[in-house]
Amino acid sequence: MKARIVIVSGACGTGKTSIARLLAENSSCARAAHLHTDDFYQYIRKGYTAPWLDESGDQNETVIDAVVASAKKFSEGGYEVYVDGVIGPWFLAPWTETAREGIDIRYIVLRPDEQTTVSRALKREQRDFFPLSRDAIIDVWQSLSNLGKYEPNVIDTTAQTIEESAACIQKMLQEGAFRIL
Q1: What is the arithmetic mean of pLDDT over 100-106?
Q2: Between the CA of residue 172 and those of 120, 123, 166, what are the distances in Å?
Q3: In this structure, which long-range contacts are made by residues 57-64, counting pairs with CB atoms below 8 Å and at least 24 apart in sequence?
Q4: Which Pfam families does the record match to this protein (predicted)?
Q5: What is the CATH class of 5-174?
Q6: Which of 103, 106, 72 is nearest to 87 (CA)?
């Protein structure tokens, strides 16, 4: 039995990992999984390119394809899947294809205001694998600031705690929101 896949996207510091983890832990399904896309980048041992650099395109597409394949396999096994990562509309083609195969795919973009995003991202612990600079955070935030047809999938979490955001998302998911198709 295929289960729903929920993509939780946003810039660095928007709370996507914490929210996706909380949603998976509190899923109403008997089985749930949380896939953290940053982990997939850490599997690369040779030839790694920081994913925000222009020359990382092929690598990023490969990583997204691996995440999609993993999420699809969990879904086919009956696990509700929560995927978190910087997944903009430019990475949605394989997810849309998966939705056409009959899997319920939802796409959510967390977007607190730019100042809040930068502040949250710079306060978190820095990781060697993903060092964050103010400019990189702003670039990612701006790349997700105008999503065209996916703008209704945005949630402004500026004034929300992680728990409030998760509760809001869970309610909206139950109401059928955020479908990719």
Answers
A1: 96
A2: 24, 29, 10
A3: 60/91, 61/91, 63/37, 64/37, 64/91, 64/94
A4: AAA_18 (PF13238)
A5: alpha beta
A6: 106
Q: What is the mean pLDDT of residues 105-111?
A: 98
Check residue 133 and give its pLDDT.
Answer: 83
- For residue 125, what is the DSSP state? P
**CA-wise closest residue to 3 among 108, 65, 83:** 83
Residue type, 178: F
CA dist 108 and 151 (Å) reads: 10
Length of the chain: 181
Judge contact between 84 and 35, C-beta under 8 A.
yes
* Cα 49 to Cα 160: distance, rounded to the nearest angstrom: 33
Q: What is the pLDDT of residues 40-74, one digit of tens each?
A: 999 999 999 988 888 999 999 999 999 999 999 99
Q: Quick one: which of 122, 142, 117 has its CA closest to 132?
A: 122
| Distance between first and last Cα of the chain | 20
- pTM, to two decimals: 0.94
